[in-house]
Specification:
Helix content is 56%, strand content 0%. The chain is elongated, with a radius of gyration of 29 Å. About 5% of the residues have low confidence.
Amino acid sequence: MTAMAAPRAPATPALTPATGSIRLAAQHFVAATFYLVAGSAGLLWIAPELAAGAYLSPRVGGVTHLFTLGWLTTMIFGALTQLLPVALGAPLRYPRVAEASFWTFAPGGRRPRHRHRDQHAGPPGPRRAAGRRREAARGGKPSPLPLPGPETAT
C-alpha cells in the first residue's frame, strides 16, 4: 500500500501592485498635494469674502473646486490606481489610458473669462452699433436683456 500525500494548498499570489501603478499613484498624490496647498492659499485669499457671507462668489466656488476636484478627486484616483491592482490581483489593463487620463485631469481646465463687449476683437458691426445707440438713449445704462432692436446698416 502506498501512502498518499496530503493535498497542497494552492499557492496564493503575492498581493503587490504593479510597479507602473505605484508610479502613477505617486503622480496623483503629488498633484493632490499641490491642489491642497493651492486650495489652502486660496482659502486665505477668500477669507474676507467668507466672513462677509459671500458664499456664492466665483472665487469661493473656484477654491471649493480646488479642494473637491483637485485634492479629493485626485487622491481618490491615486488610491484607486494603487489599490485596485492589489484587490483584483491583476495589473492595470490599460496603463497608458490611465496615464493619459492623469495628464488630462491634473492640469485642470480654465474657462475663458467673459470679456466686456467693447473688448472683442474686430470692427463694430451694425448690431453692436445699434446696441450702443440704445444704451446711449437710456443714459448709458445697458439693457437688462439682450432685446433685438431696429438694426440698420450704416
